Amino acid sequence: MDAKRLAGERAADYVEDGMAVGLGTGSTVYWTLMKLGERIKDGLHIKGIATSKATEKLAAELGIPLTDFAEVEQLDLAIDGADEFDARLQLIKGGGGALLREKLVAANAKRFIVVADDSKAVTNLGKFPLPVEVVQFGWEATRRQLEKLGCSTQLRMKEQAPFISDNGNYIIDCQFEAITDDAVKLNEQMNRIPGVVENGLFVNMADLVIVGGRDGVVTEQ
Ligand code: 5RP
């Protein structure tokens, strides 16, 4: 079975009746949502908060009831994918451009489970360009400030126009040589730059990473 599917489906086992669940974005957590859709047909009762418009749409198609933070003070669990994870469960996320809602949802969950295939495991974060969501106004100035942190940058494009996030913002992808033991500091430095809304470093947030191996074995770390 596909490695992403193995990890995604396993995560659905952690969802219990009555839970409020953060629903991530991407092709790995897709399998979690599919599984949850099946379990709901069999009588599972949950409420979800989606991390993107795409996940909102998929949840509606699968019959997963949605709620919001007006109704829910804290989620029991959030499940989401990652673009990179290291041995300390630090992550880079935002490859799909949903990092702001993803971080907000994970930060307001009692437990945060990450699902990934084994190609996402890294020794040092940073090979994957770090996505940073910025407001459109003055984005060129924000970009220059980001570059002072030691990265080269690229405005994310889609069909020859800037990619627009679900929140109406731009994404700047920041390529570092490597992000070693300074991920906590870098996360803070980035978010202090005026114009930055959020960045894709998820430090000290993940409680568990479920990894699907291309050999068909699922591990939890
Ligand atoms: C979207 C994300 C995704 O979780 C991340 O890109 C992983 O996606 P996939 O499971 O498709 O590899 O952060 O913003």
UniProtKB/TrEMBL annotation:
Classification via Pfam families: Rib_5-P_isom_A
The protein's annotated pathway: Carbohydrate degradation; pentose phosphate pathway; D-ribose 5-phosphate from D-ribulose 5-phosphate (non-oxidative stage): step 1/1
Coiled coil: none
Active site: 102
GO molecular function: ribose-5-phosphate isomerase activity
Transmembrane segments: none
UniProt GO BP: pentose-phosphate shunt, non-oxidative branch
Binding-site list for substrate: 25-28, 80-83, 93-96, 120
Keywords from the UniProt entry: Isomerase
EC number, UniProt record: 5.3.1.6
CDD domains tied to this protein: RPI_A
Catalytic activity: aldehydo-D-ribose 5-phosphate = D-ribulose 5-phosphate
Quaternary structure and interacting proteins, as annotated: Homodimer.
NCBIfam families recorded: PRK00702.1, rpiA
Family: Belongs to the ribose 5-phosphate isomerase family.
Protein purpose: Catalyzes the reversible conversion of ribose-5-phosphate to ribulose 5-phosphate.
Protein name from the UniProt record: Ribose-5-phosphate isomerase A
Organism: Paenibacillus radicis
Lineage, top ranks: Bacteria, Bacillati, Bacillota, Bacilli, Bacillales
